[in-house]
Amino acid sequence: MAASARLICASADLEEGGRGVRFTVTRRGREESAFAVRFSGQVRAYLNRCAHVPIELDWQHGEFFDHSKLYLVCATHGALYAPESGQCLGGRCHGKGLTPLDVEERDGAVYYLDSD
């Protein structure tokens, strides 16, 4: 099945290491929270779910980076994730990473590529 593209936000809404944009995705017939951030010039998107316990990561609405702006952090457990891959770097995620989502940036906008 071909993926369909759904608008998430304008490219300018995602600043390097800044606030993320929350959106929802449908996976296996269920609505799930997701987010997109910009890191190293690239837009990355993940399900908004800690790998340790399925709770949302942001410590305030749209705030996913730690204070250094180098890592994504779970506000509840302090688990750290690599923004470029979602890989667990430390904390209670026990080596499990974030679930990546396919996104595309073009024509000044960011799109979620839905293949469900």
Structural summary, described in words:
This protein has 116 residues and is mainly β. It has a single domain, classed as Rieske [2Fe-2S] iron-sulphur domain (Rieske Iron-sulfur Protein). The chain contains no helices and ten strands. The protein has strands at residues 4-10, 21-27, 30-39, 42-47, 72-73, 80-81, 88-90, 100-101, 103-106, 109-114. Strands 2-3-4-8 form a four-stranded antiparallel beta sheet, with no helix packed on it. 29% of the residues are buried.
Q: Would you identify the CATH architecture?
A: 3-layer Sandwich
Number of domains: 1
DSSP summary: helix tally: 0
The amount of helix comes to under 10%
Lateral strand order in the biggest sheet? 2-3-4-8
Order of helices and strands: EEEEEEEEEE
CA-based shape: globular
Query: What percent strand?
Result: 35-45%
Gyration radius (Cα, Å) is 13 Å
Task: Give the class-level CATH name.
Answer: Mainly Beta
Stretches where pLDDT is under 50 for at least 5 consecutive residues are none
Mean pLDDT: 92
How far apart are the first and last residues' alpha carbons, in Å?
8 Å
Total number of strands: 10
The CATH topology, please? Rieske Iron-sulfur Protein
Structural class: mainly beta
- Provide the CATH superfamily: Rieske [2Fe-2S] iron-sulphur domain
Largest beta-sheet characterization: 4 strands, antiparallel
